[in-house]
Amino acid sequence: MRVTPKTAEAIDAPPPHEAYANAPDLRREMHQVLALGAERDGRRVRTVTGPPLDATAAERAWLLRRAALMDRMALEGPGPVGAAAQTAEQLVLYDRRHPGLVAGPHHPDAITLDLSGRPYVRQEYAAWAAAGRPGTHQEERRMPAMGAGATPQPSPGRLAA
């Protein structure tokens, strides 16, 4: 059976439209992933209040979100297919070192038919979202998901910028 990045039957991973059904729109997610990367690298101070995050889970959440973002961008058309495979591989390597963080039914070593790792990213993103987005700031977990093309609406009592 030939497995392509758009089909994930080989490992029973959800197809992209299911895995990313509740994902923020691409623009919002890109902004959030870049902000998390800046916090991670020390280029930006964490401004969120609340309990400190587990560093291992936070790192994994960033790797997962970045890989999912690249996968979604690659699916949109002529996108970063190479970057999607590279970020998926980084998640796979991290999960091999931290098997307790794997959320889906298949361990990264079980995926052999699609070497890009993208179906694994979809499996893990869907499981991570279903588990309440562990490793993220509380404020991000409360944000409603927005489908592609949706426009953020101001909260009641707040003026739009």
TrEMBL record:
<protein>
    <submittedName>
        <fullName>Uncharacterized protein</fullName>
    </submittedName>
</protein>
<feature type="region of interest" description="Disordered">
    <location>
        <begin position="131"/>
        <end position="161"/>
    </location>
</feature>
